[in-house]
Fold:
Amino acid sequence: MTRIEPYRSFTVEEKGSLSVQRSLSLVAAKAPAQCQLKPVALRVEALRKSYGTNEAVADVSFDVRKGEIFGLLGPNGAGKTTVMSILATAHRPSGGDAVLFGHSLRQEPRVVRQMIGLAPQEIALYPMLSAAENLRFFGHVYGVKGAELENRIDELLHFVGLKERGNDYVATFSGGMRRRLNLAVALVHRPMLILLDEPTTGVDPQSREHILEIVRRLRQAGCAILYTTHYLEEAEHLCDRLGILNHGKLLAVGSLDGLLADLEYAEIIEMRGLPSGADLTPVRAADGVCRIESNRGVVRLFVRSAADLLGPLQRLVNRSGRNIKLEIASLRLEDLFLRLTGKELRD
Ligand code: ATP
Structure:
């Protein structure tokens, strides 16, 4: 996938007191169409989970395709980990089902368990075993044995960049190394669906990039990946499609471009320096202004097309007699997430 730095700002106009900064979004479009051609690996159907009166997962349906990274996003307590643990067969759903390559989670939990690899949010490793011993232990749990297991251990240590540390105790590993081994353990039995619950939380940027590269290679190899994260950049740049969960309900599913296109506005104009109580009538009355936010001298206009607003904005600025700074930005996932859930992705 080609990618150019997401934002570049430059001044396009500096006339009188008006300076306009245009932020261009140059992220290459993802390929949702390609994803749609891939076969469905996992189909989640009206999944529900209640804890007493708390509906942690409420009628959630989506699918994940082979060779796709599906990002499940949501604020704290939205139900992401609950979905993951139901799929990993650790919890039984209160209702609904999930079908993995034709096998029902409810009716064939053992078959499904064997086809799924979970890298849990809380690292699940034995610190007083070496990396290779951890892989050997979990390999046995999944019924992988003998030469096949030894070859797999070798392959996985190499795959996650821990070949040199294979015989060292996990207790001596950095956070990033543990995360990578946690991921390797999830892969020991060659699962077809990989569940990654915040796999980069708490690791340094270098280890994080390493983990993201591993995930991309798994996608390349045709694995279906369900991924949760609180990092915007990962959701935007790594995931092929996204599902946004809040209070157990799935609010939206689609590619980032598709979800953004569904919003009634496409750009945000931010103005700084207007006097308090400035008359916003000219912009308010203009076509394509969907929403106006003001906060301590900053006014944000959510618009269909910022270019259509330049006339009214110029008049507003001229009347104010002040140096007004304008910035125009394309909508990002952050804006969509805030709009849908009322919360920031990272809180
Ligand atoms: P986070 O981003 O903080 O990891 P999450 O989206 O993964 O949050 P879950 O951990 O799935 O959210 O929790 C969803 C809801 O279910 C929360 O209200 C939580 O308190 C509740 N919950 C989760 N596990 C249990 C449990 N074992 N018993 C009772 N309630 C639970």
Summary: Residues 50 and 322 are 56 Å apart (CA to CA). Residues 51, 54, 56, 74, 76-82 surround adenosine-5'-triphosphate (CB under 6 Å).
